[in-house]
Amino acid sequence: MKKFYAFLIALISFGTMNASAQTYYSLAEKPFKQDWNDTSLFTADNTWPATLSIIGYKGDRLARSGASPDTILKDGSKTTINITRNYKVSSITTGGIGEFEIADPTIALLGSSSASAPHIVIYLNTVGVNFVRVKYKLRDIDGTIDTATQKYALQYKVGTDSVYTNIPAAFVEDATSGPNDSSKVTQIDVILPNECSNKEKVELRILTVNAAGADEWVGIDDIEIFNDPTASVSSVSLNKNDFRISNINSNGIFNVQFLKSFEREVSLQILDMSGKLIVNNRIKNAITSQVEKVDLSNQQNGVYILRIQTKDGIYSTKLVK
Description:
Blueprint: H1 2-20, E1 25-26, E2 32-34, E3 54-57, E4 84-87, E5 96-100, E6 106-110, E7 119-125, E8 132-140, E9 153-158, E10 165-166, E11 185-191, E12 202-207, E13 218-227, E14 243-247, E15 253-258, E16 265-272, E17 277-284, E18 291-295, E19 303-310, E20 313-320
Parallel strand pairs: 1-7, 4-5
Antiparallel strand pairs: 2-13, 3-7, 5-6, 6-13, 7-12, 8-11, 8-13, 9-10, 9-12, 14-15, 15-18, 16-17, 16-19, 19-20
């Protein structure tokens, strides 16, 4: 009996060590890149090398079937650590995370009853980085008859936060094109909210859920995370004609008018030129002609950055008080 308890403790400790021993990748030193072309990265199933700064989790019992991943905010690090190596075909129906050694290698997620919210977590140190840009591809690699609305979300948490926060601009309603088709590729390109800047510990989570249908394998590939100072003053994928910015008086009062409607949450932020967050407003379901007031009357005269982020992308421009 003592041997059994010793084995059980060792098994629990191994799982804990695998999660806690992760290295938080320093973005200040160099950009983070992972394309999975090196098929020797994984030497054993369910073991993620600490040097990757990534762990995959099965997300068992984390979500109900058919839920939207952007509603799943609970931390999943206590769920089963998972990776199965050397998959060659997408007809495998075991849910979780697979390493696919195909023509263009990748890791991929598949929801199931036992893997209700499979996800990967990327561990970052952003000290010295003011504008964190995240790019990756969601690749439909499932050419079988399976078909489902395969939703994907990107979320973050900082330090000891117990729950994740969604990044609306990265939400994908369906990353697949099946059945019998695996041609769809969805490019994600977002700037993280300012609260992710200059932090010793930032966790990014990319997740899906067990869909209402026959889930399809979707790869998470060509991940790039880097400091992008130009993001403070340039538009990324949102049309500037979707907004009208007006300075209504000389005291630093601005109006932001939406010229189209946006589903889901809209983030409206003001930053100074050092990257310090001045205003951080979250707007649900902004509608056409809606006006949001930005008050900089208590700030010093100078140049500020207005950044609007939706599920469709980001728009940034300068405000001069």
